[in-house]
């Protein structure tokens, strides 16, 4: 390796993650030379407000409020984009790639909406675009999907990929509280932002599902292709229903494809997860992703889904890989073959369902509901009756594997039954995984 | 990419894994072209006994019993080594590398003993050497350690990396049986080989620990540097002791290094793992590895640790990566900086311990043991008395964090106490991990 000049890194954005990245990079030249093969140097850090006092220990001359000028510099090897949101991040990343820099990003919204075109620009320029931190922060997931599983066929991915909603649902499970108090606690504890809409609506998880679909199935989706249901409607009664069936309510992102088929079905919604499923025990703000494949079988990846240091760890891993490749002059990549996706409609989903039905007269309702289900050709695996927290009698049913459209049709009829007190609540079930030998 | 001639693959060894690799590669040229960027073709499969009938569906002319001639061929791009054992695998891999082929191996014994020199040969030749399948089979672990965590500092790795011993201990836990009946069942069920010595002695796990140490700590060890204790001495009483403390007995491989320190301590032994630790629930023949780092925090990787299809999946992932790199002409690597390790002696281990002591007179023994421990400056966190399966009274102690040498000295004294009926049993404890939010 003839080259000995340091690799120069520009950092865009210096919030919690950026500060951690700068801190870990700064003044550790010798150590980074050992990891990378050459020293790594911070060439500039772009921030919104230069006036704000910062204590990252770096030369004040490195701060700038002109990110565009920074990414246009000829001497920048790698741009680390930590701005979040689509613009100006997209324009800056495109400019950086066009100026020959490799890019490391933690920006899920950007990658979900513009991943394929950014990959195209990177491939044209012969530079790298990495974004391990964009999904499940610290958990090494994207590189394993792209490389380690490159010779296998992924059939299904089931993930808890949003720490905020997992924290809220975990609190609801532990305390029996409703959604609002648990959300307030999450905000107070710093696990939710002041405006938690992107998290609780499931939109954040949907963006991650789009990124995972591209890597797992080499299929391109728009975020709008993802079936989306957030957690704002999850009640203490749902959580209690789940407990009564040895389940927990989790917000899951789920990607499925039959081997050899082009169609994918990608969804984000609260689900009742069996206690013995490996995702059920994932508490707090952790993330975990179960990847099922034709050859390898089920694989579980689990770790911190957010936080400055964990996210910075993932960013720096990408940075080391990009730096090594740059040093070796590896500027070409096999562009990921990502084809536009054929999306299976949610109405075609076939799975098992939980139905929670508040009833005026349990015996009467049981008979009437059974008739409706039979009329629609649907079968239940179990029915239990319990006294809900509201004081009402409640039927808790678990169906066999049925088609969602058929079930929705039946539910419309059930809602009109005189013995039924309120529209039934539907939650999809996630049952234990074959082949993960849990105790 | 100008090149369109197929990449040619030689497979050495065609047992369970080899058959699966050949089956998945064969006749799927178009699909592999999509994964790799060019067709992939089997150029030859070396087996020991040509006379044995085989049904892998490939051209009979591809079979050979001369692996040396196969790896010397000029047209071979990638050699997949699935022979196991050190020789002739080592010579064949060296010859393959020297003839310019990249090598994918699943051979932990080979990599543990000769990894650094094989990496040296590969680097000189500008070819790749990958071996994801050598540790935890299907679980993507080595590539994440090498790349995704390349910007982080691993502080500890705790793994269940041997499926046979995990199966045996799992059976003992579930049935209450002793080691011998559980071993027999494992052999009958195909989870243990007829000669299970390498597994039950811990040697197989130790080889994997050496490979993990090189990747996690960039430190080179000999297998003899690993403290080694197998599971042959684990008794039904140990398992019952563990249950009485809400723990399970697992064979773990554990690698530790303080950040910034050169010294490593690497050990393989049965341990009493707290039920709430993420490794405790790993049943059957599964593998799971917990990686703790400075930035990312605890990360869990879990999946099938053995079996034809899972191992083949990992091999094919390496094959795809090696093929892509070959196609792009990426023949240089940053050689992993692996320095000879300074091994901390086991006597310096500081951890918590379980002591199980069969006693003649519980009250008397308790007093005497307490005196001995105090004399050695050791503290216990808890003592319980229980009636062992043998009918004897038994003291079950958990110590505070103490130094192993101090504890062993105390145990020598305890063994001579008149109130103590047999030499005390020592097992090291593994407590829950901070930062994995288990429910």
Automatic annotation (TrEMBL), chains A, B:
<keyword id="KW-0560">Oxidoreductase</keyword>
<dbReference type="GO" id="GO:0009086">
    <property type="term" value="P:methionine biosynthetic process"/>
</dbReference>
<comment type="function">
    <text>Catalyzes the conversion of L-aspartate-beta-semialdehyde (L-Asa) to L-homoserine (L-Hse), the third step in the biosynthesis of threonine and methionine from aspartate.</text>
</comment>
<feature type="binding site">
    <location>
        <position position="193"/>
    </location>
    <ligand>
        <name>L-homoserine</name>
    </ligand>
</feature>
<keyword id="KW-0791">Threonine biosynthesis</keyword>
<dbReference type="InterPro" id="IPR036291">
    <property type="entry name" value="NAD(P)-bd_dom_sf"/>
</dbReference>
<keyword id="KW-0486">Methionine biosynthesis</keyword>
<dbReference type="GO" id="GO:0004412">
    <property type="term" value="F:homoserine dehydrogenase activity"/>
</dbReference>
<feature type="active site" description="Proton donor">
    <location>
        <position position="208"/>
    </location>
</feature>
<protein>
    <recommendedName>
        <fullName>Homoserine dehydrogenase</fullName>
        <ecNumber>1.1.1.3</ecNumber>
    </recommendedName>
</protein>
<feature type="binding site">
    <location>
        <begin position="12"/>
        <end position="19"/>
    </location>
    <ligand>
        <name>NADP(+)</name>
    </ligand>
</feature>
<dbReference type="Pfam" id="PF03447">
    <property type="entry name" value="NAD_binding_3"/>
</dbReference>
<keyword id="KW-0521">NADP</keyword>
<feature type="domain" description="Homoserine dehydrogenase catalytic">
    <location>
        <begin position="140"/>
        <end position="320"/>
    </location>
</feature>
<dbReference type="InterPro" id="IPR005106">
    <property type="entry name" value="Asp/hSer_DH_NAD-bd"/>
</dbReference>
<dbReference type="GO" id="GO:0050661">
    <property type="term" value="F:NADP binding"/>
</dbReference>
<dbReference type="Pfam" id="PF00742">
    <property type="entry name" value="Homoserine_dh"/>
</dbReference>
<feature type="binding site">
    <location>
        <position position="108"/>
    </location>
    <ligand>
        <name>NADPH</name>
    </ligand>
</feature>
<comment type="pathway">
    <text>Amino-acid biosynthesis; L-methionine biosynthesis via de novo pathway; L-homoserine from L-aspartate: step 3/3.</text>
</comment>
<dbReference type="GO" id="GO:0009088">
    <property type="term" value="P:threonine biosynthetic process"/>
</dbReference>
<dbReference type="InterPro" id="IPR016204">
    <property type="entry name" value="HDH"/>
</dbReference>
<comment type="similarity">
    <text>Belongs to the homoserine dehydrogenase family.</text>
</comment>
<keyword id="KW-0028">Amino-acid biosynthesis</keyword>
<dbReference type="InterPro" id="IPR001342">
    <property type="entry name" value="HDH_cat"/>
</dbReference>
<comment type="pathway">
    <text>Amino-acid biosynthesis; L-threonine biosynthesis; L-threonine from L-aspartate: step 3/5.</text>
</comment>
<keyword id="KW-0915">Sodium</keyword>
<dbReference type="InterPro" id="IPR019811">
    <property type="entry name" value="HDH_CS"/>
</dbReference>
<feature type="domain" description="Aspartate/homoserine dehydrogenase NAD-binding">
    <location>
        <begin position="13"/>
        <end position="132"/>
    </location>
</feature>
């Amino acid at each position: 390796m003839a080259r000995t000049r340091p690799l120069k890194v520009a950092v865009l954005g210096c919030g919690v993650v950026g500060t951690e990245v700068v801190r870990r990079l700064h003044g550790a030249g010798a150590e980074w030379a050992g990891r990378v093969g050459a020293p790594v140097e911070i060439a500039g850090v772009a921030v919104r407000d230069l006036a704000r006092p910062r204590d990252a220990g770096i030369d004040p001359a490195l701060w700038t409020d002109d990110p565009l000028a920074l990414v246009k510099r000829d001497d920048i090897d790698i741009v680390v984009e930590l701005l979040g949101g689509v613009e100006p991040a997209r324009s800056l990343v495109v400019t950086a790639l066009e100026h020959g820099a490799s890019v490391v990003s933690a920006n899920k919204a950007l990658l979900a909406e513009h991943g394929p075109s950014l990959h195209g620009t990177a491939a044209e320029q012969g530079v790298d675009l990495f974004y391990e931190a964009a999904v499940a922060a610290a958990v090494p997931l994207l590189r394993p999907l792209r490389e380690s599983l490159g010779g296998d066929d992924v059939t299904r991915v089931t993930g808890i990929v949003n720490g905020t909603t997992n924290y809220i649902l975990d609190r609801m499970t532990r305390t029996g509280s409703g959604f609002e108090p648990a959300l307030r606690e999450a905000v107070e504890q710093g696990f939710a932002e002041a405006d938690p809409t992107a998290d609780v609506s499931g939109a954040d998880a949907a963006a991650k599902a789009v990124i995972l679909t591209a890597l797992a199935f080499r299929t391109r989706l728009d975020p709008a292709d993802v079936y989306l249901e957030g957690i704002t409607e999850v009640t203490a009664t749902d959580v209690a229903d789940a407990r009564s069936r040895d389940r927990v309510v989790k917000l899951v992102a789920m990607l499925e494809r039959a081997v050899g088929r082009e169609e994918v079905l990608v969804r984000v919604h609260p689900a009742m997860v069996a206690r013995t499923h490996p995702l059920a025990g994932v508490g707090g703000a952790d993330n975990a992703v179960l990847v099922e494949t034709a050859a390898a079988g089920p694989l579980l990846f689990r770790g911190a889904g957010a936080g400055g240091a964990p996210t910075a760890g993932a960013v720096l891993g990408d940075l080391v890989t990009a730096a090594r490749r740059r040093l070796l002059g590896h500027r070409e990549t096999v562009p990921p073959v990502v084809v536009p996706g054929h999306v299976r409609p949610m109405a075609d989903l076939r799975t098992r369902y939980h139905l929670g039905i508040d009833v005026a007269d349990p015996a009467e309702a049981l008979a009437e509901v059974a008739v409706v289900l039979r009329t629609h050709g649907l079968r239940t695996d179990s029915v239990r009756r319990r006294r809900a927290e509201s004081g009402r009698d409640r039927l808790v049913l678990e169906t066999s594997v049925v088609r969602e459209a058929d079930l929705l049709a039946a539910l419309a009829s059930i809602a009109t039954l005189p013995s039924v007190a309120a529209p039934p609540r539907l939650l999809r079930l996630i049952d234990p995984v074959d082949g993960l030998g849990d105790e």
